[in-house]
Amino acid sequence: MDPFSAFFASWKIPVGAWGKAFFEFLTDNFNAFFRGISGGLNVFLDGTVDGLLVLPPVVLILLLALFAWYLQKSKGLAIGVALGLLFILNQGLWKQTVETLVLVVAAASASMAIGVPLGIWAAHNERIYKVMLPVLDLMQTLPTFVYLIPVLTLFGLGNAPGLIVTIIFVIPTAVRLTHLGVTSVPTSIIEAGEAFGATKRQLLWKIELPAALPTIMAGLTQSIMLSLSMVVFAALIGAGGLGTEINRALGSRRIDLGLEAGLAIVILAIVLDRMTRIGVGEKK
């Protein structure tokens, strides 16, 4: 290292030390609070998984296929959902798939519940969006393994930290696509509503959100896909599911187990994508 670089590096800004001190402060003073949240989430997630596993797999598969038909009115989709889930059952990965399904649905639902209101707020307040933008960029670009460490420190092992990490990773997508959908509503439509005396609330619920719904639903689909992409990383901090099987396959170099678990994730992704996509239903 040249003298200038050595001198400059000797005055290192202690960002890491500041971060460590901050999280030590949180664990020293609010440990009971974070562990309470973790315990509540674990009870909810584990209870949901146990409740679904009480049902015979064939019954749950039939219910999911019927739900797919109800959402999209497509017999082909219902049959495809049933066949895909039966393949997963055939591979002996049913319990892990249910665990992953619960984690993904919970993460995507929470991300949309938080991200959609934030996106609407940002769409109506440019200053707020400018403040949110660097935070969203940080949440999306920070390597996943970096924020696994503080989440593990605060919430411990289990499904709860896996859920929280997934939500952190997914929320920016929900915010951005909601913001895009609302800001893309044609001005002429909004002006027409104002001309008829619509209030701001009426403009939001009767004009802006219906017009932005396809983009918001695209945000839901992307949230589900991103949640599925996080299952492997979530398994590193104790979350169960298919990610655990993939990590086992990686650790033991088992190509067969990795391929089976990978195909199960792909099938689950396709099923959830088709079930939540607007306009894929077949008219009968």
Q: Strand count, sense and closure of the main sheet?
A: none
Helices, by number, come to 13
The total beta strand count reads 0
User: Which structural class matches the secondary elements?
Assistant: mainly alpha
Mean of pLDDT: 88
List SSEs in N-to-C order. HHHHHHHHHHHHH
Distance linking N and C termini: 72 Å
Low-confidence stretches: 279-284
Anisotropy-based shape: globular
Radius of gyration: 22 Å
User: What fraction strand?
Assistant: under 5%
Q: Which bin fits the share of residues in helices?
A: over 70%
Name some characteristics of this structure:
284 residues; mainly alpha; globular; disordered C terminus
Describe this entry's structure for a reader.
Mean pLDDT is 88; it is low at 279-284. The chain has 284 residues and is mainly α. Helix 3 runs antiparallel to helix 4 (75-90) and helix 10 packs antiparallel against helix 13 (255-276). Helices cover 85% and strands 0% of the residues. It has helices at 3-10, 15-54, 57-72, 75-90, 94-124, 126-141, 144-155, 159-183, 187-195, 200-229, 231-234, 242-252, 255-276.
